[in-house]
Amino acid sequence: xxxxxxxxxxxxxxxxxxxxxxxxxxxxxxxxxxxxxxxxxxxxxxxxxxxxxxxxxxxxxxxxxxxxxxxxxxxxxxxxxxxxxxxxxxxxxxxxxxxxxxxxxxxxxxxxxxxxxxxxxxxxxxxxxxxxxxxxxxxxxxxxxxxxxxxxxxxxxxxxxxxxxxxxxxxxxxxxxxxxxxxxxxxxxxxxxxxxxxxxxxxxxxxxxxxxxxxxxxxxxxxxxxxxxxxxxxxxxxxxxxxxxxxxxxxxxxxxxxxxxxxxxxxxxxxxxxxxxxxxxxxxxxxxxxxxxxxxxxxxx
Amino acid sequence: xxxxxxxxxxxxxxxxxxxxxxxxxxxxxxxxxxxxxxxxxxxxxxxxxxxxxxxxxxxxxxxxxxxxxxxxxxxxxxxxxxxxxxxxxxxxxxxxxxxxxxxxxxxxxxxxxxxxxxxxxxxxxxxxxxxxxxxxxxxxxxxxxxxxxxxxxxxxxxxxxxxxxxxxxxxxxxxxxxxxxxxxxxxxxxxxxxxxxxxxxxxxxxxxxxxxxxxxxxxxxxxxxxxxxxxxxxxxxxxxxxxxxxxxxxxxxxxxxxxxxxxxxxxxxxxxxxxxxxxxxxxxx
Lengths: 301, 285
Prior knowledge:
By secondary structure, chain A is α/β, with parallel strands linked by helices.
């Protein structure tokens, strides 16, 4: 089962669904001939594509639109906010190579404010799958939901089996109370490995996969804050507006505070290169994450 | 066009202009652009579009989009004359207990989509036109755009795509009143030769006097202008049309007239001498 299989199945069963792209077919290269009238490539025109998606949605369609996450969420931002957001239309916005996944492209292609700006649009929801399996588990719920959704497309291979998906529900691994790692998207992999490294030294860890940063699973976040001594937020996103901010909002709304260690991009774009080298350079490998946590806990490693 | 029909259209647009003038106080409105497209909107709704109070939800209706949304008083006025909106409600202009404000929104029956941010509704209309084509329905999709709005890159980007997909069920009407907000288009970002620009983008363009119902009827009846091409009507209009005291005046784009000026302007509309306007002119908004 792939992303393209799910989309094909969806369209074959329900003619309302349409695939649109601004000339970015990576996720469904073989699909266009199979879905003919349910496929529109508008060329390199993110704004026009979003405007048209809104028009199609007015006619009862559910457009699933694709482009690189940066250009889609930022070049077309005002179209998403104004045409999709104000009208609250069920347009599904799929951003390719978000966060660190743009690896060698450089800052023009780094979507590391996408979660912040998309969740700032009132009716918009945000789905950041941990890996391909997590993405495939969530797609049907997200595509068939009546609200607009932003999806951080993530085709990386899973290293764990994920549980059943539910919008607004986080996925919890472990019952540890020394440290809780809150993460969304691609960095889940590093978080999972960091958990193993920490546990090998006797630290008890809970890992929270924040599948939908919006709507946030406030109940799980609060329970985690109440039960765990150190809260780590981990995201390939600017520190502003992402998971660290979401946690702050949840805490403030509930008159709580916590001992928080954030991993995020601190007001800078990341160094472009091969993905694993980028992680190493920026300090986001499992070992580096674990080391920082050991230091914070004053544990020798 | 029959004399009776022509008389009826002229009377309707005169009443629409009265509504616009009454909305130009107590907070004001964008009167210049509203008056330039009033005849166009009256013509389109009464003679061209297959849309009525009864079929507003019918997927086979024709679609109308007002992309340059600040001229929405002309639309409110037309809806009153069509019987879609109670005249009393125009008194709610800019009141928070209603939805009658400076830009269109879907809370007003008949308005297909909100606008206000320029350069949006062409691509939205294209999405609708595309769907009508995919479903093999014969709806016409009309979008009125401003000439100043053609500064927006998204308009030309959208035209490339509309032509690529041969959306010949789409009609773009340019309210060519020669003005941007505060400056004549040709003095700021010149658009001439406009018809040639549209044709270079793959459309079929025709010009018409946007205040002459008989001429409009001749042109619009030939839609679609060419199989496989987007049709464009460049409607030559006069900003502030109907009120010589504000016609073609750069400083009367947005106005907020006093009660006595409004009374005088209503008389001017019916042929009285030009109004001596004393209220502040607003250059930029």
